[in-house]
Amino acid sequence: MNYEIKNSFISAKIDSFGAQLNSLKNNNQSFEYMWQADPRYWNRHAPILFPIVGRLKNDEYFYQGNKYNMTQHGFARDCEFELMRKDEDYLSFRLKNSDKSLEIYPFLFELDISYELIENKLVISYEVKNKTDGKMLFSIGAHPAFNWPLANEEKNDCFFEFENIKDTKRYFLNDKGLVYESTDLEIKDNKIALNEELFKDDALVFNDLNIKQITFKNSKNNNYIKLEFEKFPYLGLWSKPSGAPFLCIEPWFGVADEEDSSQKLEEKKGIITLEKDEIFSCFYSIEI
User: Fold this and answer.
1) CB under 8 Å to 125, separation ≥6 — which residues?
2) 3-state secondary structure of 197
3) How does pLDDT run across 99-157, given as a tens digit for each residue?
4) What is the pTM of this model?
5) Is 91:3 a contact under the CB 8 Å cutoff?
């Protein structure tokens, strides 16, 4: 079911299937900021990545001597969440483990996703609670997709703007979606110019805690999208290189397996461990 929240500045719509943000608009503008999931290019809006981010080597992992299979980005994005609370400017949803989830992910959990409007900003919060009688291992991440370009500008008029970042490392994914190498990346004047060639080698992946925000801007007008994600250790920037009119800005607590991964869940890069009844929480925001 689709739910709407709004305030004096902006409005948002969230689907309980996947607890997925699918619309974000400024009340004074007519156009849509969120990608509308045209299946010709990519049929999702802003999936929640849980309990893994990215792809596992051979789509499988090992835990306590057992082998489990799981597809890219995990299963939460394809689950119906329970509505927990709805106010005019606030929504929260919950997903719990099920018999089906336990077949591929042997942990008891509660995953809460909330959306709150604060002036012209949408704050998205994640909370993971370990209900297992023992440790729980997981990753979590965001995958919001935005229209590119937003309105009257052209694709090549657009750019990413960072805050006080001159250089960092870019990690590359191979054709199986696994991390296989990195290279130094110079960021001139805190900007990366946007064009379709930028994504010809798949996503740009960063592992740099100095990157705490990124703004999608253009040189023709004042339209912008700013994401703030302090403490997220990874960031993915992605679009399809085939002329797809969207781009994704993805803060992550987790990352795809490396080519030489042992496939043991407890050794997975970026994995988070919770003790029984321990809670992990994080949030990021989208300002328009």
Assistant:
1) 112, 113, 114, 115, 116, 281, 282, 283
2) helix
3) 999 999 999 999 999 999 999 999 999 999 999 999 999 999 999 999 999 998 999 99
4) 0.97
5) yes
